[in-house]
Amino acid sequence: AGMHMPIDSFFISLAEEMKDRAIGIILSGTASDGALGTRRIKAEGGITFAQDMESARYSGMPASAVATGAVDFVMKPDKIVNELMRISKHPYVAKRPPAQESSREMAVDGSPAERIFALLRESTDVDFSQYKFATIRRRILRRMALHKIEKVPQYVRYLKERPGERLALFDDLLIDVTSFFRDPELFEVLKNKVYPQIMEKRTGSEPIRIWVPGCSTGEEVYSIAISLLEAIGKAAAVTPIQIFGTDLNQRSIEQCRAGYYPETIAGEVSAERLRRFFVKANGGYQIGKHIREMCVFSRQNLSKDPPFSRLDLLSCRNVLIYMKPTLQRKVLPIFHYSLKPNGFLVLGTSETVGEFTDLFAPVDHRHKIYTRKTTILRPVLDFGTIPGDTGALNAGPAGIEASSPPSVERLQREADALVATQYAPPGVLVNENLEILQFRGDTGPYLAPSPGTASLKLFRLLKEGLGPEVRVAIQKARKHLAPTRKEQVTLDTGGRKIKINLEVLPFRTGGSAEPYFLVLFENPVERRILKEKAPGIPARDGAGREKGPKAKETYVRQLEQDLQSTVEYTQAVIEEHEATNEELRSANEEIQSANEELQSTNEELETAKEELQSANEELTTVNEELANRNEELAQINNDLVNLLENVNVPVVMVGHDLRIRRFTVHAETMLKLIPGDVGRPIGDIRLNVDVPDLEAKLLDVMHSLQTVDIEVVGKDKRWYTLRMRPYKTIDHKIEGAVITLLDIEAVKRAQARVEEHTRVLRAVIDMAREPMIVLRDDLTVELANHAFYEEFGVDPDGAEGARVHEVDGHFTSAEWMDRLHDALRTGETLDFSPYEYTTRDGVRKKGRLNALQIEGSPRGLILIAIRVGPDALPPGGGS
After folding, report:
1. Cβ atoms of residues 866 and 794 within 8 Å
2. Would you give the DSSP letter of residue 795?
3. Given a cut of 70, is residue 395 above it in pLDDT?
4. Could you give the 3-state DSSP secondary structure of residue 504?
5. Which terminus of the chain faces fewer neighbouring Cβ atoms within 10 Å, N or C?
6. What is the end-to-end Cα distance of the chain in Å, rounded?
7. CA 347 – CA 317 distance, rounded (Å)
8. The pTM is what?
9. Is 762 helix (H, G, I), strand (E, B) or coil?
10. How far apart are CA 835 and CA 518, in angstroms?
């Protein structure tokens, strides 16, 4: 974009090379270079500084770095030096313990690290014990270095005493590296390969739904939105799009919703995209409103909170790499559940689907793009606690509520326990609907798939001859909830018939009302072969039959058993048939009753349909009104934005909680505000003018509803008028205050000149030996000299501002007042007019009077001078 950002480039390189040993310092400078690099250093576990705004000659660079939230210390340069010297001696930077020693100190089981996880769970409801410990350990040591703590147990005590530090550690643990269009090749693959398939499979008015878990500050979400709009082109106008971004950090979510980013993103986003999808605002860029409206952000714990569903695309890059395998095995089935059939999953370059190749098929190996597979058995989803989580202690047996269905793993354990108590022949585990949940051992001689649609139904897989016997055994086991065994069941094994034994073991688990059945197959011939190897076992012929006179008896007994089995099977079928008939009769009666209810319901629905049609018409009308209102609001908002950007007066709006809502561009420059100050209490910000008790004055303005003006001096030594007035809504509610700053330096200088001229005029008049007085056009006294007060015995305290004929003394006379009025009316000048007066001593004197009206005076000032006549000269001569 033509922008040179050397500090960002250097800091990013430093972070990649030195990792958590990097230290970045931002000093005075213009623009916002260094902000992205500061974030990268802190993301790698480094330490960051910024010069404070008061000592910085140019506050642009340090202010932009502070606005990212990635600065650890804000202080003067000399204090930065002292802090660097202290940090250099800390083990985190200087003499680090070997990896094994550090791991032993924070070994998870029963250690300080486990107590740290417990404190974080208490404050944030997030369990970090299932995240990879190497990254967490570096972040904990970094916080210890910031607070001058060298031992982990000391830091644990520090966390217990200061809940605020827990939140600070929580923020550190969630820092991630993100940027716009990270890995540009991936976005080209999405545009050319993934988005077209999504559009092709979309039906009707179905929206495109995308989810970005772990979205950090939102760059990934907005990058996907922009690339999607570019890919679908004109179809974007008629295609509803919903993009969800979630993260654990609430502060990051708020930044996502605002959509403000520093101007340094021009190095990541092309000029064409900046022009089309961004708006220049507050010294940076804001995502366009049409993009923000299609993106929804919320706080979510990926391992506990319910996920989104029916998604076309799920992008989770560089999140799984921080999780332990246990947590990954829990999250990936959730992703499978969230996606539509053939939906797409995008992972980071260092991530894979691991053992879940049965859930996801690769689409692009290089860029880690997968598509969702359709599976016969739905993966087990667990939105509760993870193994090892202490929260499982409160969730009932094994962390699962009694009313929830048990997992396949638990059913397997129950089945293993049953078999281990008796024997371990091959078999299958089935549910109430006789669907196979698990195959146990070599079941090939007893089960075989049938032609047609693939199925796991037990009776579609049983070989010929086993169906009736298994059905009878399962029915008995279900009826009596007791193990059922059938021996000498004939099985055809491809032209050769053998005898096997069946056993059905019913059981329930986890308090579930649904029974499960373990069906076991036992081949007596195989067991007999094993026994014949032991001494004392009678010899048998190759067919497994005993030699001797008892062969006929054995054959008869076998026929009797077959007959008994046939009778039992027939009886079971009859009982099942009778039960089915009874159920059908009951169902028929219920259907007839339900038919009557449906007819009544149908009439009610007809009535409701008419009401809905009427309501629909009303909603259509309301919708049109809302659309018109939205257009008006958009126009008003555009007018307001343009007004605030073009007005030359600094204006700051604060809410009732004294947090900054909005400010103009001139307020940003004159008061040293930055976009990141929006939402902060105004009392926490050092403005460019010093206003004592500003918060108290604002609260008083909101309560008194009075406008208050205060003259203040800025740090540039200029005079300003700080005006505070209440912020009123349209319905006259007070929702805050509006602060304006008016430059009155020119007025103050003019006022000083006027005061100086007034002082000079007074001095000149006072130096005159002749009595002199200045009157306004309404004949009130403006000022007089000492000679006048002495000559006529006038009190100076009561003279100025009073009308001339009301002044005590002997100055005025009816004749002279008439002449003065005539002169004012005609514009005549009274030069050396004869004048008689009486002094305060009662002496009658004569003199001459001059009266001159001062031209250009806004108050029509008149200067009157009295010259004493020759017959009334003072002793010693003079004039």
Report:
1. no
2. -
3. no
4. strand
5. C
6. 86
7. 5
8. 0.52
9. helix
10. 137
